[in-house]
Design brief:
Length: 649
């Protein structure tokens, strides 16, 4: 018998998620108690100090040598300044990459040379590191122009008298804090001004603003949207910097207490199912950054926060990353997520170990990569953890869980496949939710179909971020709109953005033979669309096909078009059959048929033109291979039913 999860049960599950323990982090200790459990700054040794050569002998030699090799290529690096005109590009052309490329590279070079000097401890990287520290301290803004408030007063240039903290200002504080921790004594032999400047700049640009000014990432917004990855990501770097640099124990304790409070603002409204509405590629800076905070807190307090790993919400937040995997190469990419995100493998392994999840540990071990000297663009401190776990990590069992069925009732996402532990056959995912999710696309009722772990019907995802991406023109970008997702346009209307545009009557059921997701899409369209009910059912018949049925009731019927997106050429076959020429690179070609009622609909295939600045990211991820299939309803009716079946030819 099928296990049926219907709306009342889902409501109970959602209520249950909100009834979970609140203030899990900030509610455990008073400020006085926190001050007692935190190890004082002068005594805190999260990793061996530079002069502890026995301690560093336990670090992975292959990784350290790779860092040295990479750093040697930077010995003559000329630390660039960043011209004001680069910052102005965000306003003048919308481009954010020219500025970011320079800024990110400087930090990569600095971080690599710090690791190389730790390994050698001979001083040959010290002067270049000092130059890097000084150059970064002289920058007007440690963040990026794309994150500046969009006001006439700023217009792409930072007001240095009013510092505020974005993601990359916080990241910069971490680089400088670890430089101070490891190389502070060597800096002092050159000049005491180096460490003094590290603290003064970090305190002025990051620590003080975070303690004295409200930042939007700290709480839910005015519309009630809960904080996104900015919250734990910035907190992890804030925590790094204050634990390493702040010598005043009272100020240090007060800052940690505020970090805990801000993190609880992220955790409290987070759903019990652990679902990340930003998708797997943002998970690495969302739930994963939350874990970074927990790891640091436990190191700084002799495991006073280890109790958190027993919390079911925390555990589900970790498991999300493997629950939404499609295959070794692809992950579910609703909203702005990437279809092929890079895995922070050693961190995933550590997270799995902390919560006692062997499947997550195997998953992290599966994505372990050879040592090549790369420090990663962000989350610099993860490298230090990785250095001291390689013996265990190399020997760890590897594997991909690939669960047969995953239902995330709070996120309203279904993930199902033909059989557990295998990418063979069909994979289907579908979503409900609302159109005010973080990094939102207007995509209620959207679904994807993959075959053998590779794309067939797709969610295009995001392109290149520009000024337009997070502006009033966000939904002028085609891939953010509902008519470029696998959902219909109704009486000329697409789905608008906003929390009021959402799914209703959401249900899921699953058994050995099939899995099914259903929802009413009517509330996700504006009143002008005249939709009384649009009940969509997406069903995987395991080992056979995918069925999609829309049962509709409209106040008026002036025009209906169903849309499907694919990354392969498609053509109209005989009446009632649309052929998709599935031909993934390096794999066998195969034709798939989308069956439809030719008496009701006429399909037209169009190749999407990739011409705008934002489209460069689409070309990078998919190539110039995006096709939209438009099934125009020939004679729209107020009450009707539409059926599609996707299967091998």
């Amino acid at each position: 018998m099928m296990k049926l999860l219907i709306l009342p049960i889902l409501l109970l599950l959602s209520v249950g998620s909100w009834a979970q323990k609140q203030n899990l982090l900030s509610g455990k200790y008073t400020v006085d108690e926190l001050g007692k459990v935190l190890i004082p700054q002068a005594q805190w040794t999260p990793f061996p100090r530079l002069d502890d050569r026995a301690g560093w002998a336990k670090a992975d030699k292959a990784m350290m040598q790779a860092f040295v090799k990479k750093a040697e290529g930077y010995l003559n690096y000329e630390w660039p300044f960043i011209p004001a005109t680069k910052s102005l590009l965000i306003e003048r052309t919308g481009d954010r990459n020219e500025y970011q490329t320079i800024s990110f590279k400087k930090r990569e070079v600095l971080g690599t040379m710090i690791l190389a000097e730790i390994y050698e401890n001979q001083g040959r990287f010290v002067d270049p590191i000092i130059n890097g520290v000084w150059s970064i301290c002289e920058e007007s803004f440690w963040g990026v122009p794309a994150h500046l408030p969009k006001t006439k007063e700023l217009s792409g240039l930072m007001d240095v008298s009013k510092p505020f903290v974005d993601l990359f200002a916080a990241e910069t504080a971490t680089f400088l804090a670890w430089a101070d921790y490891y190389l502070g004594d060597k800096f002092d032999k050159v000049s005491p001004q180096i460490r003094k400047r590290i603290y003064n700049e970090t305190n002025y640009r990051v620590l003080e603003p975070l303690m004295t000014k409200h930042h939007g990432f700290m709480t839910s917004n005015a519309n009630g949207r809960r904080p996104n990855n900015w919250n734990p990501w910035i907190c992890s770097n804030w925590l790094n910097a204050v634990l390493l640099l702040e010598k005043d124990q009272n100020k240090r304790t007060q800052a940690v207490q505020k970090v805990l409070t801000v993190l609880d603002n992220y955790l409290n409204p987070h759903p019990l199912d652990g679902g990340c509405d930003e998708g797997p590629s943002y998970w690495g800076a969302a739930a994963a950054s939350l874990f970074d905070n927990l790891a640091l807190l436990n190191q700084a307090s002799n495991d006073a926060f280890r109790y958190v790993y027993e919390d079911e919400k925390i555990r589900n937040m970790g498991r999300f990353i493997y629950r939404v995997q499609i295959g070794p190469e692809y992950f579910l990419n609703f909203a702005d997520a990437d279809p092929q995100p890079k895995m922070s493998a050693s961190m995933i392994y550590r997270f799995g170990k902390a919560i006692g999840d062997e499947e997550m540990m195997k998953f992290g071990a599966y994505y372990r990569e050879p040592e090549d000297g790369s420090i990663g663009r962000f989350h610099y401190f993860r490298n230090f953890y990785s250095l001291f776990m390689q013996d265990e990590y190399r020997k760890a069992p590897q594997g991909l869980p690939l669960p047969k069925s995953v239902w995330l009732p709070d996120l309203e996402v279904m993930v199902v496949r033909d059989r557990a532990g295998s990418t063979d056959g069909l994979f289907v995912a579908a979503k409900g939710g609302n159109n005010d999710e973080s990094h939102n696309h207007n995509d209620i009722g959207n679904y994807v179909v993959y075959y053998n772990g590779l794309p067939l019907l797709i969610d295009v995802g995001r392109g290149t971020y520009t000024r337009k991406t997070f502006s009033d023109g966000r939904y002028d970008i085609w891939y953010n709109r509902s008519d470029y997702h696998n959902v219909p346009t109704i009486n000329g209307h697409t789905q608008p953005p906003g929390p009021q545009f959402k799914a209703s009557n959401v249900a899921f059921r699953d058994d050995e033979a099939s899995a099914q997701f259903s929802l009413d899409m009517a509330p996700s369209y504006p009143a002008e669309a005249g939709v009384t009910s649009w009940q969509r059912t997406i069903r995987l018949n395991r080992g056979r096909n995918v069925q999609v049925q829309d049962v509709v009731s409209l106040k008026n019927a002036t025009g209906l078009t169903h849309h499907l997106m694919t990354s392969y050429p498609a053509e109209v076959g005989k009446p009632g059959e649309l052929i998709i020429h599935y031909q993934p690179q390096g794999h066998s070609a195969k034709d798939f048929i989308v069956k439809y009622d030719a008496r009701k609909m006429q399909p037209v295939v169009e190749k999407v033109k990739l011409e705008a600045m934002e489209d460069e990211g689409i070309r990078t991820k998919w190539g110039d291979t995006i096709y939209r299939i438009n099934f125009k309803v020939i004679s729209p009716k107020k009450v009707d039913k539409f059926d599609f079946v996707v299967a091998e030819k």
